[in-house]
Amino acid sequence: MASSSDEKTTLCFIGVSNCVPDVGGETACVLLNGTVLVDAGWNAALHMRQFGCDPLHVTHVFITHCHHDHYLGLAPLFFYRAMSDISRQEQERLVVVGPRTEIGMAVERALAYLQTDRYLDAAAPVDVVPLRPGAEFETDRLHVRTIQVMHPTLAMCYRFEDKRTGATVAVTGDTAYYAPLGRFAAGVDVLIHEASAGPGSLDPLLQRGHSGAVDAARIAQEARPKRLYLVHCSEQGRAEALEAAREIFPETHVPREGDTIELPFCGPECETT
User: Fold this and answer.
1) Which residue from 250, 231, 246, 233 is spatially nearest to 12, judged by alpha carbons?
2) Contact (Cβ atoms closer than 8 angstroms) between residue 81 and residue 65
3) What is the pTM of this model?
């Protein structure tokens, strides 16, 4: 179970699957300290409950980019919070952060889907924070940096630093191989990189804007994180992706949904699955 702690940073993999999740699964999204959701999957609010995580504890959502499988879960999250037993007066306003060109529209259309013009109580209060790549953002607990990545729409990698523990996590979202990511993520505890192309590598000049495990491992080789986690990969391709990445960067892992790690790392006892 992911929870907030002064001594540890927790990281729960809510979803690890590719664009169309495996049966019973969820596309790539992760929960920091039980309160910060990075990408919303198809329906992260319901999926996270399987792992003891409470959607009502989420205070911030960071969307890497506004392709459907990364923001579809916004409307269910808004609706879940509105339908909870906690009154609006008792809830913090949910903050949704994302690329400046599209995040406002994504939130607006999620609210329109819920017909909030007709049903005023269908969504809990939301604040939208559009960010330019390179901008920084602060929460009470996190310092967040951003960099643009290579994808057909405006997309960003987030680097989170927990101000209480010093732990650092970089989440790439969807991207082709992009050398500056190695410098941006340098020295992080955890690098979470997509590997939707499975064990191989993709030409970064292609318009798809995705990576394989070899591309992710090359970034890790430059960044030297303590661990690389491959996500956004199909169930069938994970074993081969892990093998290919470990030939380049041995400290590569392929998480399962619900896996929770604690940072900073202090040995096997700090990780639960």
Assistant:
1) 231
2) no
3) 0.93
Residue-wise pLDDT for 35-59, tens only, equals 999 999 999 999 999 999 999 999 9
> How crowded is residue 131: how many other Cβ atoms within 10 Å of its Cβ?
19
- 99: burial class by Cβ within 10 Å (0-12, 13-18, 19+)? buried
Phi and psi at 15, nearest 5°, equal -140, 150
Q: Domain map of the chain by residue range? A: 9-272
Number of other residues whose CB lies within 10 A of the CB of residue 28: 32
Q: What is the CATH number of domain 9-272?
A: 3.60.15.10
DSSP state at residue 65? B
> What pLDDT, on the 0 to 100 scale, is given for residue 124?
85
Residues facing residue 157 across a β-bridge: 147
Q: What is the pLDDT of residue 262?
A: 97
DSSP 155: B
Q: How far apart are CA 236 and CA 47, in angstroms?
A: 21
**Regions of the chain short of the pLDDT cut 70:** 1-6, 85-91, 207, 267-273
Cα 3 from chain centre: 16
Strand runs (DSSP E) across 59-174, as ranges? Answer: 60-62, 94-99, 126-131, 136-138, 142-148, 156-162, 168-171
pLDDT tens readout for residues 118-132: 998 898 889 999 999
Q: Which helix (H) or strand (E) holds 30?
A: strand 29-32
According to the model, what pLDDT value does residue 5 have?
53
Cβ pair 16, 256 in contact under 8 A: yes
Counting Cβ atoms within 10 Å, is residue 7 exposed (0-12), middle (13-18) or buried (19+)? exposed
